[in-house]
Amino acid sequence: MSPASTQPAIEGWFAEDDSGSPHLIGARCPQCGTYVFPPRASNCPNPGCDGDQLESVALSRRGTLWSYTENRYAPPPPYPAPDPFEPFAVAAVQLAEEGLIVLGKVVDDTLAADLKVGMEMELTTMPLFVDDDGVERIVYGWRIAS
């Protein structure tokens, strides 16, 4: 049975453009140019800046693999986990334009053995779970760039 609809697991962290390509939603300090993810409206994270207003921006879709690991254990309740649990990779990707490092799950069927620091990665979305209302909840993630 297919889900009734598809919605983000967390609202406001990513969106799709007109072509259906996903991008992360971040924030940028107009005073010093510092980027932040996840997005927020205030409090520049740069300790040398006293800016308190951040503006919402679309972040780069591509970046370089900065680091990675592999999760080999299912998360404890109340976090959703497939049964049976399958190990998955987690990537830290340095965004091409912003220099910001963003963590995310790597697509299924790509494990740590498939990854190498410095390789090009691109943003995608993937299902996380189907909620009690039959809505498929999706998250952003990373895949090796084609």
TrEMBL record:
Residues 22-55 form the ChsH2 rubredoxin-like zinc ribbon domain. InterPro entries: ChsH2_C, ChsH2_Znr, NA-bd_OB-fold, Thioester_dehydratase-like. Residues 57-124 form the ChsH2 C-terminal OB-fold domain. Pfam families: OB_ChsH2_C, zf-ChsH2. This is Benzoylsuccinyl-CoA thiolase. It comes from Mycobacterium fragae.
